[in-house]
Amino acid sequence: MKKMLIMCGAGHATSTIVPDSIKDKVINGVALLTGIGTEQVWEQVKAALEK
Questions:
Q1: Separation of first and last alpha carbons in the chain
Q2: The model's pTM
Q3: Contact call for residues 29 and 9 (beta carbons, < 8 A)
């Protein structure tokens, strides 16, 4: 199975609209914009890619 990592956002919005069919696979990346909690986000990304 192929895995795809999509990162979107330009910093002017706090959310991206995604289809309900993949909503449970979305990782909130606002911490990457604010700099607070970045380590937790990267851990979630790593865990998701290792599944």
A1: 11
A2: 0.63
A3: yes
29, 7 contact by CB (below 8 A): yes
Buried b / exposed e along 19-30 (16+ C-beta atoms within 10 A): eeeeeeeebebe
Closest CA to 6 of 50, 51, 49: 49
Report d(CA 15, CA 50) in Å as an integer: 25
- Per-position pLDDT tens, the chain of length 51: 677 777 665 555 556 677 788 777 778 888 888 899 999 999 998 998 888
Nearest to 1 by CA among 25, 20, 29: 25
